[in-house]
Model the fold of this input.
Amino acid sequence: MERPIIQIESLKRDFALGTEVVRALRGISFTINKEEFVTIMGASGSGKSTLLNILGCLDQASEGVYKIDDIMVKNLSGNELANIRNKKIGFIFQAYNLLPRTTALENVELPLVYNSLFTAKQRRELALEALHRVGLSDRLHHTPSQLSGGQQQRVAIARSLVNDPVVILADEATGNLDSRTSYEIMDLFQDLNQKGKTIIFVTHEPDIAALSKRIVLLKDGRIIKDEPVQNFLLAKNILSTLPKED
Amino acid sequence: MRAFLTMLGVIIGVASVITMLAIGEGSKNSIKEQISSMGSNMINIRPGTDFRGGVRMDMSSSQSLTYKDFTRLKEKSTLISALSPLVNGGGQAINGSKNWPTSIYGVNTEYLKIRKLEIASGSMFTEANIQASAKVVVIGKTIVENLFSGGQEPIGKMIRFNNIPFRIIGVLAEKGQNTFGQDQDDVILAPYTTVQKRILATTHLQSIVASAKSEETATQAVEEVSKIIRESHKLGEADDDDFNVFSMDELITTFSSTSQMLTILLVAIASISLLIGGIGIMNIMYVSVKERTREIGLRMAVGGKGKDILLQFLTEAVMISITGGIIGVLLGMSATSAVANLLSWPTAITAYSIIISFSVCVITGIFFGWYPARKASSLDPITALRYE
Ligand SMILES: Nc1ncnc2c1ncn2[C@@H]1O[C@H](COP(=O)(O)OP(=O)(O)OP(=O)(O)O)[C@@H](O)[C@H]1O
Ligand SMILES: [Mg+2]
Done:
């Protein structure tokens, strides 16, 4: 099933820094279909985060076309953008960005709080289900300070899943984690992708990128390479070769 | 803890508003109550400046009121239900080895009704006693306490006032202090004729007291009384009154407006502390918005709209001020009862004072929380997320 979820064309993003103009994106085009698992790679400053922020409707392109789930994202009001973020997108950050002093369950419920269609009971049910999917059913009432980095990132992933978005965007989601935990998170992503989630993932690490199905390589705001991953690996298999800690 | 410190301003503000209003209201009530217990329909006629001799005389020594004025009033007035002459003099009351400085009031039998006095034991003197200028007295409780040792029956005993012997025929029921701190039980009542002849040696009256038939007609009664006395004094159109007529209504109005002003002043002071409390809230909300910039960014990233964020911070500000308000109301109530118990001041907590200070709290929260909340809601999601 080749249904396009994300379509961008000649996307440009300029930042005005005083009198200077920083051209972070200089014309980017690609289409990402449903159930794809794409990694965006590139050197620091190549425009990865800028691109992901635009895809996540946190930022708007200076020029070019962006369609998500057949909705044209252009000249939309702040409220309309908030609505797209709320219903179509799940965002995962390098720094987890969980609410402190708030339980895992309540953190996961947060996106649904801003959707008036859900009752408190439905929120609770969906959050429980999402936490179950990331394997944290036994940590529902822990606050972020009582969870490890990997567990916090799982809560963040549960939060990105809870509104059943059309795409999950992750900006260096494994950047703060050790390699074993990173592979565990990648295993989770592969599993989610297997079950039909579209994932776009930003990383620096080729090892991690190799666990996706397609790699887009950026350089100075342009795509210099966009090809499928040849020998697709399963994170599960890599994990089994790693020495168990304890 | 920090929130509590912020609330402190609001707490103190609300508590003082409640306490101040309770004290203001309480004193207003007690003044009203005491004035009307003195006889709210009471009308007091005093001699005024006498111009006829061409020399202004001191009011108290003026002799413009006479028994003739009293009889004229008695005959002609239609709006008055009780009327009594009043002559009084100070002196020493003596019973054996005990003595007590006090005043003797020469009145007639209707005086009890005018001043709302009651006889506790014995009886009031009679019209016949007045005709005869009898040396009989009715005394107040303070006199009993100071001239008779515990338990001794005063009725029928003789006491001397300024060396003139009087027989006690009645004791008045206790009345306590009036608004001005005067002991209303420190009185000796005697027939006015007796006081005029035997103590003051005068034929004039120091004043005439009367009771209007009802509170509603008190003002008309005052006018009627003035008219009758002007006639009695044969004053021409151009002449000023040589007497003064007071009604208790005027007194009540004067006192209420004084205590009203006091209340306004107290509330103004308390409002300043509420204002300071509000600024405290604004301050903590600013700090809170700054500290939680990333949280705001995240909430926006998962779909929170500007108005959601605005509402969240506004609610928080209002919650702080309402919590402060509740604590303030409780504190104000206990401070009020402390004032009532320790200083035995009259107090009255009114529902409106609680409602007012509470709404002021909510308004303070909204007003001072608005700007920081507005700032939070207008943040750009990415900038907020990147904020360190
Ligand atoms: N708000 C901004 N204002 C000005 N310049 C910006 C802004 N955001 C990004 N840039 C610039 O745009 C370019 C791309 O930045 P971006 O954050 O997208 O890089 P990146 O690929 O994510 O790098 P990293 O791997 O270090 O996260 C950089 O040169 C950066 O300085
Ligand atoms: Mg980046």
